[in-house]
Design goal:
It is built from 19 helices and five strands. It is mainly alpha-helical. The strands form two sheets. A three-stranded antiparallel beta sheet has the order 4-1-5. Helix 2 crosses helix 10, helix 10 packs across helix 19 and helix 17 crosses helix 19. The longest helix is centred in the C-terminal third of the chain and has 34 residues. It is globular.
Length: 454
């Protein structure tokens, strides 16, 4: 406890770090304030009644978690930062498949990144317009729109407001990245997820207290702690491939002598794909749920099967989602980790893997290791994805069960580690102790490692 207080005092002493943290907190407060400002023309009482009677297990409830409740509030930030995330994912995938985007990402440097940012922002506006129209249709279907307002005015004004809210949220994220601490966009998602945690925790405590299950509540907290611990280990886990730089000659003339090159390593992450496979799988799982909403055929059994995909705690939903996460993990890792690029980089640096010939043999060796470590990583991601449904099956409140796994847990762990790593860097630069007594906190920038191709 004493070390924690000392660390907090050291953080406060560093003016730049203090200003960055205060600026970040201020921007996050602005974002949370916008999550409670209701769109004009929406009747909050009717909306609250409709959302309370909705199924908390459906995918719309999942979206509400990521927006920190703004989705069910019909707020100006109802779509949150998610359209920007979607646009970024699309641009990233295009970078793997389209030569023009590959050139912008890899060869054109800062000018290429600026062009990509501009394209991403324009695509964000387009996605927001489409999603905003769907969201307003959903609000109207709930009967939460004031009938005295003309439909055209309601649609036109609120489409503009929702688009402005998303663009403003994107701007907040960029300002946090530039002038604050941590990755701004990731922090906006994180604060939305964390916003639902206190109420979910209180609800679960009251539920277990009414059933004389205080011990069960303690066991749930213990299980959550170990799940978070395992997630941290997997997120930071790397397989180090040792590399050796070629010998170099020092001295002049006859006094030259060979000196062994430095030793280093290539860190291959166990979870190189990060949270992306879960995002892809969940996006794909929206398709059968959408079909279930509009399919009204005479075959009741088929309708019931499709309806199971609207409930993210159902067995068919979780089996298919688990398999999709495993498949997408392999696909995304294959796109992200390029063994040939590693081999070419080592050749340019006059380095080699001991016992492995340069060139194709090196690329094949790295590819084999990547394939082997991806298997446990993909299975872990699949298990993490279905853990909320497992927790709900054991009687955990749905809102609290969401924190036992899935995208929420992975985002929280990754963002917290990245933010703490930046804080620790500021402390170490000023000759203060880090946040931990031994070792170093590894954020995403640290885990790219030494010797990785740029």
């Amino acid at each position: 406890m004493k070390k924690l207080i000392t660390t907090l005092q050291n953080i406060w002493k560093i003016e730049e770090l203090r200003n960055r943290i205060l600026f970040t907190l201020g921007m996050l407060l602005v974002f949370r304030f916008g999550s409670y400002v209701v769109l004009p023309g929406v009747v909050p009482e009717v909306l609250d009644s409709a959302t309370q009677n909705s199924n908390p297990n459906d995918l719309l409830g999942l979206i509400n978690v990521f927006t920190g409740g703004a989705f069910n509030n019909a707020a100006v930030f109802a779509l949150g930062i998610m359209p920007y995330i979607t646009a970024s994912i699309i641009i990233q995938l295009l970078g793997f498949a389209v030569p023009y985007f590959q050139r912008l990402q890899q060869k054109e440097g800062e000018s290429g990144r600026k062009k990509l940012n501009q394209i991403t922002r324009l695509l964000t506006v387009a996605i927001t317009l489409v999603q905003g129209g769907g969201y307003l249709t959903y609000i109207q279907s709930l009967g939460a729109v004031d009938p005295s307002i003309p439909k055209g005015i309601f649609w036109f004004s609120n489409i503009i407001i929702l688009s402005t809210g998303t663009i403003f949220a994107m701007w907040l994220g960029e300002r946090i990245t530039d002038r604050g601490i941590g990755n701004g966009v990731s922090l906006l998602i994180t604060v939305g997820i964390i916003a639902t945690l206190p109420l979910a925790l209180v609800s679960e405590f009251q539920l277990q207290l009414e059933g004389n299950g205080l011990l069960i509540f303690v066991l749930e907290l213990a299980a959550l702690f170990f799940i978070v611990l395992a997630t941290v280990l997997i997120v930071q886990g790397v397989r180090r491939i040792p590399i050796q730089f070629a010998k170099r000659m020092i001295g002049r003339g006859s006094n030259q002598m060979p000196v062994a090159g430095n030793r280093d390593y290539i860190p291959l992450k166990v979870n190189a794909a990060g949270v992306m496979p879960i995002i892809f799988a969940q996006a794909l799982m929206f398709l059968p749920a959408t079909i279930a909403r509009y399919a009204a055929g005479p075959d009741a059994q088929a309708s019931s099967f499709l309806g199971a995909f609207e409930d993210f705690t159902s067995l068919p939903y979780n089996i298919i989602q688990f398999l999709l996460v495993v498949v997408f993990t392999y696909i995304y890792t294959a796109l992200l980790v390029n063994p040939q690029q590693y081999a070419e980089y080592l050749k340019r640096q006059n380095a080699f893997i001991p016992g492995i010939k340069p060139g194709k043999n090196t690329a094949d060796f790295i590819d084999n290791i990547t394939t082997r470590i991806t298997l446990p990583g993909s299975i872990f991601l699949g298990i993490i994805t279905i853990l909320p449904a497992v927790a709900a099956a054991f009687g955990v409140n749905i809102a609290f069960a969401m924190f036992f796994g899935g995208t929420s847990l992975l985002i929280l762990v990754a963002v917290v580690l990245d933010t703490l790593q930046q804080i620790e860097s500021h402390l170490l630069m000023r000759k203060y102790d880090g946040l931990v007594k031994s070792g170093r906190i590894q954020g995403r920038s640290r885990m790219q490692g030494i010797g990785a191709p740029m």
